[in-house]
Amino acid sequence: MTEKREYRMADLAREAGITVRTLRFYRERGLIAPPRREGRIAWYDDHHLARLRTIAALLERGHTLSGIAELAEALDHGRDVADLLGVAPTEEEPVRLTPEELAARFEGQVTAENLAAALDLGYLGTDGDEIVHVSRRLLDVSAALVREGIPLADVLAAGKRVREHVDALAELFADVVLRHAPEEDLHRLRPLARSVVDAELSLALDRRLRKPS
User: Fold this and answer.
1) Higher per-residue confidence, 107 vs 206
2) What is the pLDDT of residues 9-54, one digit of tens each?
């Protein structure tokens, strides 16, 4: 097990490549968590160092301190990863990301508003200084759509609407199965539900593409 490191203010600032004055400013703005106090001595740890490096990375990408402060608040008030993943077994693969890795996936579009929307949808959770996306497939598709020029805000808004429809579809499938089989069969039969939804969506897209503009 890795030993937990702690730093005094000057040591933390040196490790992060900033001045003590800047560190104090970040602390006053709420960009980093309060230190552990031992008498008159303030002790910082590797979580503080990771947050400072994240701030530096986001500043390099053109984010303002005000925007970073909003991102930090949204992350700090986001759902913990235990809440995010502490649900029924899922076939989806979660992805762990640092804040700067998330920013790189969605160049210039990881705003406080978009981050809050993703947290509300349950796409994102937090685990210490890491962000956890609930589904690698959703993460990859969202990033691909953004690369195609679709704003992340629109992708998230569409995701919210899709969520409403697929929740209804899941309820419909569960009702059909439970009328004829025990509840434990839901997990075994879920690939059939996915196949029906995939086929119907494909047919619906075909119909939409055949419509005159």
Assistant:
1) 206
2) 999 999 999 999 999 999 988 888 899 999 989 999 988 888 888 8
Tell me the helices (H) and strands (E) count for the chain, helix number first: 10, 6
Residue 127 has, within 13 A of its CA and on its CB side, a CA count of 17
Q: Is 21 helix (H, G, I), strand (E, B) or coil?
A: helix
Helices 46-60 and 65-76: angle between axes, nearest 10 degrees: 140
Per-residue pLDDT tens digits for 54-88: 888 778 777 778 877 777 776 666 655 555 555 44
pLDDT at res. 84: 54
**Is residue 189 a contact partner of residue 180, using CB atoms and an 8 Å limit?**
no
| Beta carbons of 124 and 132 less than 8 angstroms apart | yes
Contact by Cβ (8 Å): 79, 122: yes
- C-alpha count within 13 angstroms, C-beta hemisphere, residue 8: 5
Contact 113, 71 (CB under 8 A): no
